[in-house]
Specification:
By secondary structure, this protein is α+β, with helices and mostly antiparallel strands. Among the domains are: about 130 residues, no CATH class; about 160 residues, 6 Propeller (Neuraminidase), CATH 2.120.10.30; about 110 residues, Vps16, C-terminal region (DNA polymerase, domain 1, Orthogonal Bundle), CATH 1.10.150.780. Helices cover about 40% and strands about 20% of the residues. The protein has 26 helices and 29 strands. A 5-stranded antiparallel sheet has the order 1-2-29-28-27, with no helix packed on it. Helix 6 runs antiparallel to helix 7, helix 11 runs antiparallel to helix 12 and helix 12 packs antiparallel against helix 13. The longest helix has 24 residues. The termini are far apart. Belongs to the VPS16 family. One of its GO terms (cellular component) is endosome. InterPro entries: VPS16, Vps16_C, Vps16_C_sf, Vps16_N. Keywords: Coiled coil. Pfam families: Vps16_C, Vps16_N.
Length: about 750
């Protein structure tokens, strides 16, 4: 009976392991990702190709079929499944290299050192230059790389000098030292990122040099045969931790990128330079390998010096001209040609344990037990009893869950997850959190892997890139409904999920030139509503950047926070509307901000006329002027013909004057204004103040009494105390002081 059981198990496992190839103690497999949706009649030959990692988009710069002065290359952008996103004729200069940034922007490096940046949909974003000296010497070769600082670019020029920028978002060009003996470009070179430092490793014949900021140092790979010949190809791993070298005699050397340890040395018996050479390894890899590709051959060389030979798939219509393209990934290598796309990767250890022929691993037994259970076979009980006797049921469940995460086929995933679900029913204190989260993650991954979306992410890549980055990439590609569904399904907080999607959607919506301002404003209002965390001012700012000022104003009407409305209105030069909004808000700081802006923007007459139409703003500005700008206050009263306040202003100013003549002059101005305001009492009182000042000055000059500036009452008291009764009597008569006082 045991033999029959193993025979049945072997037949079932053979279906899964049919595409496995042994490499040392590990296995490698090819997963069919897509039948490409594109229609490329002449294949990928004569095209510059750039494919972004993590299942990113593919860019092709295709030369015209007939080379004529009027024909132009065609730049085409596709999803990873080959669905066309955009296409346009290339009208700029000759392109040396294409690459993708971490935010899915296409970088086009031209011969003259200009780097043109486009978004996924072919819209030009910006450009920069790799240095003025590059214009003369021209770019011979370029590479786009990713470092801890962001997306970087390195170039080698016709003058054999290297220039690199480690982050295109914060451009700082570094010109590396000269390489002695280098003419033109080196036979091969790569960019290394080690210890947060970016260096260039290059080969001249059999010699290797490392270029850093200050020096050029010769290095020697440990264990490389002196008879290996000239180094013609180099490659670094996805993590920059490993390096591989290929020589013109067919020798392959691989080891640590710090050149401290050799891992592989192998004679490929092929002297022609491979078209591409990439590392194929995964985290916790048993058997990392180097993948070399020639015209029709794919060679995988492992640490154990075992190899896998594979013939590349050819387009049956054009079997001679079709070529393939390799894309390095975190846990494998994607193989793209004109008809299909595959993922070459080391089979994860847990999958090997479960699916290996005649495996007795706990997960393999649980999977078989569940299959027998579905057939209502008593053998299910036998398998379960065997697992329980070994006390490994919990491990079996964990293995099935982990293996399901690494499988690409939904049917295999379901089979493993159902087996795990079956097994955990017999566990009393099993924590299902990992099981539930894996189910959710697989559902999300299967959704984005669909050909219509075209993001062939593995579970390992997904965990590395994080959910937030996945949502960002869906937003870049404008898959808004799918992004919202994922956010809701995974119960992401609104501010990180749905609201962020709506904000991005609205920002793109305002750029649709074929729709009217009213239509867009209505659509945004209906979709966004009062979602917390979505700022209408941010959307309006995007509309203004696109030259749609009226749309921006309509959108700002939905913004409930005046503090967000007003600054943008000022930026759009809608100062009067900004002032209205500030006054309506009741926020004095906002009003002051707008008034200050208006004062700097307008001439004085227009400024005062504008304030006259806003009494609240005018009143606040007067309060400000009383404290800060007295002279402006006078102009305000003059503008309004407000004689009463203008007279009060002169009185106030008079008491700041040190010289008596100046004070009397200001008081006389006040008398004139009081008369114009028909305020006889104030005019008479001011005139009496002037008389008192003159009297005080006269006595000060004659007697040195120090009376200037005192009130009438205090002046009389001082005169009496000094024995100047006659002068006190004169004041009593002149100012008609009451007898009682």
């Amino acid at each position: 009976m045991g033999r029959d059981r193993f025979r049945v198990q072997a037949l079932r496992m053979a279906f899964v392991t049919a595409s496995w190839n042994p490499l040392g103690e590990a296995f490698y497999r090819k997963l069919e990702l897509y039948e490409m949706s594109w229609s490329i009649r002449d294949g990928l030959r004569d095209s510059l190709v750039a494919a972004a990692p993590y299942g990113g988009p593919i860019a092709l710069l295709r030369e015209p079929l007939r080379h004529s002065p009027s024909s132009r290359p065609q730049l085409e952008i596709y999803s990873a499944s080959g669905i066309a996103i955009t296409s346009f004729p290339w009208k700029s200069g000759p392109v040396v290299h294409l690459g993708w940034s971490v935010s899915d922007e296409l970088l086009c490096v031209q011969e003259d050192g200009s780097v043109l940046i486009y978004d996924l949909f072919g819209s030009f974003k910006r450009h920069f230059s790799m240095g003025q000296e590059v214009v003369q010497s021209q770019v011979l070769e370029a590479k786009v790389f990713h470092s801890p600082y962001g997306t970087g670019i390195a170039i080698v020029t016709g003058s054999s000098r290297f220039t690199l920028a480690t982050n295109i978002e914060d451009l700082k060009l570094r010109r590396l030292p000269e390489v002695p003996g280098l003419q033109g470009k080196p036979a091969s070179w790569v960019v290394l990122t080690q210890d947060r430092q970016t260096k260039v490793l290059l080969s001249i014949g059999p010699e290797l040099y490392i270029l850093d900021n200050t020096s050029c140092t010769a290095v020697c790979p440990p264990g490389l045969s002196p008879h290996a010949g000239s180094i013609v190809h180099m490659s670094v791993s996805f993590s920059y931790k490993y390096l591989s070298l290929f020589t013109d005699s067919g020798h392959l050397w691989a080891g640590l990128s710090n050149l401290q340890e050799k891992l592989i040395e192998f004679d490929t018996k092929k002297t022609d330079r491979p078209k591409q050479m990439l590392w194929c390894r995964r985290p916790k890899s048993q058997q990392p390998s180097v993948v070399l590709m020639w015209e029709r051959l794919l060679l995988v060389v492992g640490e154990c010096n075992d190899t896998i030979h594979s013939t590349l798939t050819q387009n049956p219509i054009f079997p001679v001209v079709d070529v393939s393209f390799l894309v390095g990934e975190l846990d494998g290598v994607r193989i793209i040609n004109s008809t299909n796309q595959e993922l070459l990767q080391e089979v994860p250890l847990v999958c090997q344990d479960i699916f290996k022929i005649a495996s007795m691993a706990p997960g393999a037994l649980l999977l078989e037990a569940h299959r027998e259970y579905e057939k209502s076979s008593q053998k299910a009980d036998e398998y379960l009893r065997e697992i329980k006797e070994q006390n490994v049921l919990e491990k079996a469940v964990q293995q099935c869950v982990e293996a399901a995460a690494h499988e690409y086929d939904p049917a295999t995933q379901k089979s493993l997850m159902r087996a795990a679900s079956f097994g955990k029913c017999f566990l009393t204190d099993f924590c299902s959190d990992h099981f539930v989260s894996t189910c959710r993650e697989l559902r999300v991954l299967n959704a984005v892997r669909e050909s219509s979306v075209g993001m062939p992410l593995t579970h390992t890549q997904f965990k590395q890139m994080t959910l937030q980055v996945l949502i960002d990439r869906l937003l870049f590609r404008q898959f808004y409904p799918l992004a919202i569904e994922i956010c809701r399904y995974l119960k992401i907080p609104d501010y990180q999920g749905v609201n962020r999607v709506l904000k991005h959607w609205a920002s793109c919506k305002v750029q649709q030139k074929e729709l009217s301002d009213d239509a867009i404003a209505r659509a945004v209002c209906v979709k966004v509503g009062e979602s917390p965390g979505v700022s209408y001012s941010h959307i309006a700012a995007k509309a203004y950047e696109c030259g749609r000022t009226e749309l921006a104003i309509k959108l700002l009407d939905f913004e409930p926070r005046s503090g967000e409305q007003v600054p943008l209105l000022l930026k759009m030069k809608r100062s009067h509307l900004a002032l209205n909004k500030a006054v309506e808000s009741g926020d004095t700081d906002l009003v002051y901000m707008v008034v200050t802006h208006l004062k700097n923007e307008m001439n004085r007459g227009d400024f005062f006329m504008t304030l006259r139409n806003q009494p609240v703003a005018l009143s606040l500005y007067r309060q400000f002027c009383k404290l800060q700008e007295q002279e402006t206050l006078k102009d305000l009263y003059n503008q309004d013909d407000n004689h009463q306040e203008l007279a009060n202003y002169y009185v106030t100013v008079s008491y700041r004057e040190k010289r008596l003549e100046s004070r009397l002059s200001q008081l006389q101005n006040a008398v004139d204004e009081y008369n114009k305001a028909k305020n006889d009492f104030a005019a008479k009182a001011t005139e009496e103040e002037m008389r008192l000042l003159r009297f005080q000055r006269k006595l000060d000059d004659e007697k040195g009494a120090g009376l200037l500036g005192l009130s009438l009452q205090v002046t009389m008291e001082t005169l009496l105390s000094l024995g100047l009764h006659k002068q006190a009597e004169q004041l009593y008569r002149d100012f008609k002081v009451p007898d009682k006082r």
